[in-house]
Write a structure and sequence with these properties.
heterodimer, A: 621 residues, alpha/beta, Rossmann fold, 3 domains, six-stranded parallel β-sheet, 20 strands, globular, B: 92 residues, alpha+beta, Alpha-Beta Plaits, five-stranded antiparallel β-sheet, 2 helices, 45% strand, binds thiamine diphosphate, binds magnesium ion
Chain lengths: 621, 92
């Protein structure tokens, strides 16, 4: 179900010319035609002066191509704020593997997209942002709603184009899609001055920009084959290992490599832990799965990292939420192997002994064939038994006896219904970590979360985008009371478009994650994170925005029944759960700490004495 | 350690900004930077001098190679004592 990314090579000239080749079209009509050609079925955006020609072209396209059921072939979904449009496009991309498209006006429209563009860059999500711009004659004149979008976005996006020559528009847009999805995916911004949108142009149907450096590097990477020697060195090391561990990141999902990973791990009996971004890349209910590692990973995954003697990093980049202290990460690993599509990630943080730069799926399949052909049949049964004991003795747990509703119990209750088959999005904070820890993830593209940027406000618009990508799927936004407020205007987007989205707000009356740090590192001074005096009434807000099922849950004994009712509701449903405001996220590997210093908290058994933080940690982030 | 980078760049709008911005964003100080056209008007040559560790150089070169308009990156580095350089080492 994971869409394979098209290989990166420049597509050869199509056999048959484009049916519209040679037609005279306006720049705006060319924008629409390219979107159609690239398989775009929904757009997200907010209108404004500098993008009016494109919006008009979209309107005309939809009016002229109405489907038999009266629906539009390329609806334009209007958010409350362009940031919402950006995250909707990202949600669609994350849930489907397709390029998500946002179309906004110049100046404030474009700058409102900065956060989602940076978020997509940081999590390698393919996106295209089309921004209106003041006419070329006004560029650089401080014109009304002019912003230096190419400058601003250059620091945030995978690439930016400012189209100053109308003749380049068509090639630029086609190339923008190519860049967004190829190699390590990412967001591309195309800034289009209004006169370029209005220019009359001859439509070519196939042209692309020459980007020889990029394409040559891409081709070299795509064609890089793992040689027999490299495979042999890998298996020699594996044969010497007794405790191998796969550390799989978001690259597994971006590469469509989860099936290959499953084959590889199960064939050789190598356990798998994934990063936050890698959740779903390997079925967390599989016996070889150790769920998530890292700052808030499971204790048993982190212990496995401590114990392993051979670490295999697949599409993972040793970032600071995983390897806070690189030198003490996987301290017993005699051999570290790394496969990544991005050469710049190899040995960036931690030196590795073996690496391959290339598409992950092909590399895993190659290793698999090599190992099978040579009868590699390592026996890791002692290691498996060791890990089974770790999983049993250090399982995730929480305060099950409290009279207050525990957030983890809410996730568990939802999971009993969804069983890893729902698409889950989140805000950022404790609720995000509880969702990551307590849900099962059985397949890729079911977990949408802002990993690297950690952007509050992501959850609701991302869920909306995902629901457009997967209209029949159960999509649930697990949000925080702080995070959801950041894009609360999008509640009304849900109901206006009749989406059957399910929203859960785990309300701990404040910025729980920040409070957790303030408890640990600032003597419990809750500067600006306590919301108990705030007036927000989420239930009334959801009702005002037309949610058909709205409920505030405050009693623990009603949890099971309410969750059942909530999920059974056919339309948009909003559930606010008043949770224990003091619930913490455990385990926790503190900032600047090694896994040996992991705190497991009051409800998870610890393996050895953790060195309590005495060092100054307040400047660690 | 001082390093000289020779960067061949497609002459696109914003290309220079992207290279300079990348170095700034990665906290890599540029000591000198010159830009010249080549015999091909579509291609510019950037000559950039920076200082920093070999690891920093390697990372920033790899990141530079990811920029869409970059065609090629070559480097020359001083080896040995900065006051009394022994030799120049180059890498592709
Ligand atoms: C846009 C943005 N601003 C600030 C932060 C810093 N931050 C991280 S978690 C958090 C608190 C989130 O509160 P809430 O959404 O209620 O989640 P909780 O931790 O309470 O579950 C804050 C402020 C952030 N990640 N993103
Ligand atoms: Mg909260």
């Amino acid at each position: 179900m994971n869409l394979p990314l098209p290989t990166a090579a420049p597509s050869p000239a199509p056999e048959a010319p484009h049916p519209r080749a040679g037609e005279q079209l306006s720049g705006a009509d060319i924008v629409v035609q390219i979107l159609v050609d690239e398989g775009c079925e929904v757009l997200f955006g907010y209108s404004g002066g500098a993008i009016l020609p494109v919006y008009d072209a979209i309107f005309r396209h939809n009016a002229q191509h109405l489907r038999a059921d009266g629906s539009e072939p390329m609806p334009l979904i209007v958010p409350a704020n362009e940031q919402g449009a950006g995250f909707m496009a990202a949600g669609l991309a994350r849930a489907s593997g397709k390029v998500g498209v946002a179309v906004v006006t110049s100046g404030p429209g474009a700058t409102n997209l900065v956060t989602p563009i940076r978020d997509a860059m940081a999590d390698s999500v393919p996106m295209l942002a089309i921004c209106g711009q003041v006419p070329t004659s006004a560029l650089g004149s401080d014109a009304f709603q002019e912003a230096p979008v190419a400058n601003i976005m250059a620091s945030c996006a995978k690439h930016v184009f400012l189209v100053t020559e109308a003749e380049q528009l068509e090639a630029t847009l086609r190339t923008a899609f190519e860049i967004a999805r190829s190699g390590r995916p990412g967001p591309v911004v195309v800034d289009i001055p209004k006169n370029v949108q209005n220019a009359m142009l001859r439509f070519d149907g196939a042209c692309r920009l020459p980007i020889p450096g990029y394409r040559a590097r891409l081709r070299a990477t795509a064609q890089a084959q793992l040689g027999d020697d490299a495979c042999a060195r890998f298996f020699t090391a594996l044969a010497q290992a007794r405790r191998p561990l796969i550390y799989a990141g978001g690259g597994v999902i971006a590469a469509g490599a989860s099936t290959a990973l499953h084959e590889f791990a199960t064939t050789f009996g190598i356990p798998v832990t994934t990063t936050l971004m890698g959740l779903g890349g390997f079925d967390t209910t599989h016996p070889l799965a150790l769920h998530m590692l890292g700052m808030h990973g499971t204790a048993y995954a982190n212990y496995a990292v401590e114990d392993c003697d051979f670490l295999i990093a697949l599409g993972a980049r040793f970032d600071d939420r995983v390897a806070g202290v690189p030198a003490r990460f996987a301290p017993r690993a005699q051999f570290i192997a790394q496969i990544d599509i991005d050469a710049a990630e190899v040995s960036k943080v931690k030196a590795v002994d073996w690496h391959h730069v290339g598409p992950l799926r092909g590399a895993l399949e190659r290793l698999l064939r090599h190992g099978r052909a040579r009868g590699a049949h390592p026996d890791f049964s002692d290691w498996h038994a060791h890990l089974a004991a770790l999983k049993r003795d250090h399982a995730l747990d929480f305060d099950r006896d409290s009279v207050l509703i525990q957030p983890q119990a809410v996730i568990e209750a939802i999971n009993r219904h969804t069983r890893g088959r729902a698409i889950i999005s989140t805000g950022v904070g404790q609720h995000q970590m509880w969702a990551a820890q307590y849900f099962d993830f059985r397949a890729p593209r079911h977990w949408l979360t802002s990993g690297s940027m950690g952007t509050m406000g992501f959850g609701l618009p991302a869920a909306i985008g995902a629901q457009f990508a997967r209209p029949d799927a159960l999509v649930i936004d697990i949000d925080g009371d702080g995070s959801i407020r950041m894009n609360l205007g999008e509640l009304e987007t849900v109901t206006s478009y009749g989406l059957p989205l399910k929203i859960v707000v785990l309300n701990n009356v404040g910025d729980g994650m920040v409070r957790q740090w303030q408890k640990l590192f600032f003597d419990g001074r809750f500067s600006a994170t306590d919301r108990s005096l705030r007036r927000k009434d989420f239930v009334m807000a959801a009702q005002a925005d037309g949610f058909g099922w709205v409920r505030r849950l405050e009693r623990k004994d009603e949890l099971e029944a309410v969750i059942g009712e909530f999920l059974a509701h056919p339309g948009a449903a909003f559930l606010e759960v008043m949770i224990d405001p003091d619930a913490g996220v455990y385990p926790m590997v503190g900032p600047g700490k090694s896994y040996a210093q992991m705190i497991t908290g009051p409800f998870i058994a610890e393996r050895n004495e953790s060195a309590i933080a005495s060092a100054q940690t307040a400047d660690m982030f | 350690m001082k390093h000289t980078l020779f960067i061949l760049l497609q002459n696109e709008s914003g290309a220079l900004l992207r290279v300079a911005g990348l170095f700034a964003a990665r906290h890599c100080n540029i000591d000198t930077l010159t830009v010249a056209t080549t015999h091909d008007p579509a291609i510019s040559q950037l000559t950039l001098v920076m200082h920093g560790s070999a690891a920093l150089l390697e990372q920033v070169v790899r990141q530079t190679r990811k920029l869409v308009d970059v065609l090629d990156v070559n480097t020359l580095s001083l080896v040995g004592d900065e006051q009394r350089p022994m030799a120049l080492a180059s890498s592709a």
